[in-house]
Design a protein that fits this description.
heterodimer; A: 408 residues; mainly alpha; Formate dehydrogenase/DMSO reductase fold; 15 helices; 68% helix; 1% strand; globular; B: 256 residues; alpha+beta; 2 domains; two-stranded antiparallel sheet; 8 helices
């Protein structure tokens, strides 16, 4: 198989600049939201002393988890030696870094004291999973950047497998760290579970690949480059496996909680709802139906094997992922702390009640800005760097196609 | 031209004179600060473990004296409503689901020996002093609120707005997290006072005693002769969320 040829986007069309302007507008809106929140204080959002992490965190954690998953294609080619994915490995690494940058931007801009972010890098409490994550995030940028360099610089190509392996281990650790932000919280019924770390890893595969698929189809469609059915089929099947695996972890997580009497309250809250809250609907409709069942049908139904169905399935997986983060992060906080088992509790500080929350505009703007930052970085980078293969046609990427041609 | 010479100071003379004047100007400040912090000259040690005991049978439903006193002492006032206002201590009413028995108690930072908020804080801003008081270092708190996610008692508040007219003894700041300090300013002032009869309790305990309910004790859990240690030895005390084995510094009696 010949080496893939990479080529920058021409990037002079009105459409290209329009895309950058649209993304730039979202980023500017997010920055305006940040300045407003920073200047006034967080009371202008709907986050409060009960729901301390809100919509910005839903977007941020989703992007950080997806970042790790976006590296999947590169890992499959470097670590597991699947040749067909190799041409797309640089895009996979680029997207991983861009998504992480977008997610971290949200987290930092939502801090109560964002100007002190440097303190988070100079003073470490090594028992804090957050402090580990600071190292894991920074390390991820460094390692994936080196990996990308090894792949793009012909002289260093021979080291790309080693770099890829290291990046693979690092990103598994990174998502373990992200899942453990919640998994290590003993106080709340929805968290405090070791399964959250591997569950986040599997979900990262689905979320990252879903974003990757959309970018590949869009980039190749808009630039009229060849994207063959073999590559699309691979991406489709991979997405299906990851969606199914994520659903499996969700089932095990809830079954475990359903077995533990102490956790019947939170399970009833999420699975059955109280009639007044949206978490049950977001779980069943958003996470399970839109983010799991329908994309599985789109991926595997024989009559739906087209490019549009793959894109639709990917979009739905992203919406399902955001729903999952909403249920996990906000639903987990909305359910009251069980400080006094067997008691009905009332107080001036919302004890014993389901905490009310709905996203505010500044929060949504900040969250969307993180997404826009990630996409902006990708759209800009594929213009200035040779990241995208010139062709992903079967004749250029599919080893079976090439082998058949050679024997014929 | 002697007048001219007298004005024409050399560089060395000028620096010397101005240093002396500056010294004179700041000396009272330094001196007064020293006087004001006479109790702070020694660092907190693990010879003490400060704690509280709350007898819920004496805590009156509807009484809010402890909360009012805490707010006054530490300069906490409402701004944008209960959802975002800070509450270092709150009154909680419990109704037993089986029996319908109603009781009331104050709930605040439990000053755990193994505090989850300290475990999760990325920068070390959440910290436990050697004498068991759990505090937030406002200088290095980045406002991530992870400690609020981790606290099993929901004892912490985030400052959601710009604050004005703060108390010098309890500096607070927008964008940081805070909670009950056990009136650390009073605890530290006590350290400089050898006569124990002159020691002051945290504002909530003081107010509870003043109201006549006398439902709260404050003292050194490590001093076997202290009132709190004696009472705990005699009648015991219960931890909230004892299953987490955090070894709380605040104990309760009478939760049934």
């Amino acid at each position: 198989m010949q080496k893939p040829r990479y080529l920058e986007l021409e990037g002079r069309s009105a459409g290209y600049y329009l895309l950058l302007v649209i993304l730039g507008c979202f980023i500017a809106a997010g920055l305006a939201a940040f300045i407003y929140m920073e200047h006034e204080g967080h009371w202008v959002t709907r986050m409060n002393n009960q729901i301390v992490w809100g919509t910005p965190h839903v977007f941020a954690v989703f992007l950080i988890v997806a970042a790790s998953g976006a590296l999947n294609i590169a890992s499959i080619s470097s670590v597991f030696g699947r040749a067909i994915y190799k041409p797309l490995a640089p895009l996979s690494a680029l997207l991983a870094m861009a998504l992480l940058a977008g997610g971290l931007a949200i987290l930092v801009l939502d801090l109560g004291r964002p100007e002190r972010v440097v303190i988070a890098m100079t003073k470490y409490n090594f028992k804090s999973i957050f402090a580990w994550n600071m190292i894991l995030y920074n390390g991820f940028f460094a390692i994936v950047l080196v990996y990308l360099w090894m792949m793009m610089e012909r002289r260093f190509n021979k080291y790309s497998k080693v770099a890829g392996f290291f990046a693979f281990i690092w990103r598994l650790t990174l998502t373990t760290g992200t899942g453990s932000i919640f998994g290590f919280l003993v106080a709340r019924e929805a968290y405090d579970a070791a399964i959250l770390a591997p569950m986040f890893i599997v979900m990262s595969f689905a979320y990252g690949l879903a974003i990757f698929n959309i970018i590949v189809v869009a980039a190749y469609g808009w630039t009229q480059r060849d994207l063959g059915p073999a590559m699309l089929m691979k991406l489709r099947r991979l997405l299906g496996i990851f969606i199914a695996a994520a659903l499996y972890f969700v089932v095990v997580y809830h079954l475990t909680n359903l077995y533990i009497t102490q956790r019947h309250g939170i399970e009833s809250f999420i699975l059955l709802g109280t009639g007044e809250d949206i978490y049950m609907k977001v779980f069943w409709i958003g996470q399970i139906l839109v983010g799991g069942v329908i994309p599985l049908l789109l991926v595997y139904a024989p009559r739906l094997q087209c490019r549009a169905s793959l894109v639709l399935a990917s979009v739905l997986v992203i919406l399902g992922g955001l729903s999952q983060m909403y249920v996990t992060i906000i639903g987990g906080q909305a359910y009251p702390l069980e400080i006094f088992p067997g008691k009905t509790v009332t107080s001036s500080f919302s004890d014993g009640i389901i905490n009310a929350y709905s996203p505010s505009l500044p929060e949504v703007m900040l969250g969307l800005a993180g997404v826009a930052i990630a996409f902006f970085l990708v759209v800009f980078a594929i213009k200035v760097l040779r990241i995208l293969p010139q062709s992903l046609a079967d004749r250029d990427v599919d080893p079976h196609y090439i082998a058949e041609k050679q024997t014929a | 031209m002697s007048d001219d010479t007298s004005l024409n100071l050399t560089r060395r003379q000028f620096l010397g004179t101005s240093s002396a004047l500056a010294g004179l100007a700041i000396a009272p400040g330094v001196f007064l600060t020293k006087v004001a912090h006479a109790g702070d000259t020694e660092a907190a040690t693990d010879k003490n473990r400060w704690g509280m005991l709350i007898d819920t049978s004496k805590c009156a439903t509807g009484c809010n004296e402890c909360v009012t006193a805490c707010n006054k002492e530490n300069g906490i006032s409402g701004t944008h409503g209960p959802a975002t206002d800070a509450q270092w201590i709150r009154k909680v009413t419990l109704t037993d689901k089986q029996t319908g028995y109603v009781q009331s108690l104050p709930l605040m930072c439990q000053h755990c020996a193994n505090p989850p908020c300290v475990d999760v804080c990325p920068t070390g801003a959440s910290m436990k002093r050697a004498d068991g008081i759990v505090l937030v270092d406002k200088h290095i708190c980045i406002g991530c609120r992870y400690c609020m996610m981790a606290c099993p008692y929901k004892a912490r508040s985030f400052i959601h707005e710009v604050l004005e007219e703060q108390k010098a003894v309890a500096p607070r700041g927008k964008g940081t997290v805070e909670s009950c300090t056990m009136c650390v300013q009073r605890v530290d002032a006590n350290r400089g006072e050898a006569d124990k009869s002159k020691h002051v309790d945290p504002a909530c305990v003081e107010a509870c005693n003043a109201s006549g309910h006398k439902a709260m004790w404050f003292g050194d859990l490590k001093d076997p002769d202290s009132e709190i240690a004696t009472e705990l030895k005699k009648h015991g005390g219960q931890q909230l969320r004892a299953d987490l084995q955090l070894n709380t510094g605040v104990r309760y009696q009478g939760i049934t």
